[in-house]
Amino acid sequence: MRILVVEDEVHLAEAIGQILKTQNYSVDIVYDGEAGLDYALAGIYDVVILDIMLPKRNGISLLQELRKQGCGTHVIVLSAKGELGDKVLGLDSGADDYLAKPFQTEELLARIRALGRRKGETSVAGLSYGDLQLDMSNLVLFSNNGDITLTLKEAELLEYLMRNGSVVSQKERIIEKIWGFDSEAEANHVEVYISFLRKKLKHVRSRMEIRAIRGVGYVLREAEEYV
Ligand code: CA
Q1: Nearest 5°: phi and psi at 178?
Q2: Does the pLDDT at position 122 exceed 50?
Q3: pTM of the full structure
Q4: 9 CA → ligand 1 middle, Å
Q5: What residues pack around ion ligand 1 (CB closer than 5 A)?
């Protein structure tokens, strides 16, 4: 999962970023509401953690604009304004959840996991597709015939393909999603990681394979000998 943190208190933003990275989430951090809106509208995030009191544009206004533009990304509003009225306003403005500061790390993580589950495909144990199961917290891929450890990038790439299911994942989207906007990553990075993943799918003797769709990207499918 890729998470956007919009928080102007630098220490807090970085602390949240560190916590999320220990859980193998990819994290981008921005420090004001305008940058937050730009990033959130890119549509590459699974969850946005959003402060309310922000420079340039407050969190509520950001959230309203996001929803107005049809962006359905999950948003957890995080704010020192823990009063009931603010909570109601946040939820009415399109937040999926609301957490008052100060909060416990464990609670934030549990709420992120809950939103991940709401997306549909994720079970408590991990993500599954075809005969594959991916445990993102331990970076282990299982099939009915074995298991293997993945690197973080391999796991993120496979997670993205699994979440997209039968929808083809575009190469440019994969780069933005896995390597982020600031990276120098290019199309051949994706090819290299796809080839690593193919070897690992073979290793666990999965029925699934990664099919390249010329000029578009990749999709995870049941291999032809099984269809
Ligand atoms: Ca703030």
Answers
A1: -90, -40
A2: no
A3: 0.66
A4: 6
A5: 8, 51, 53
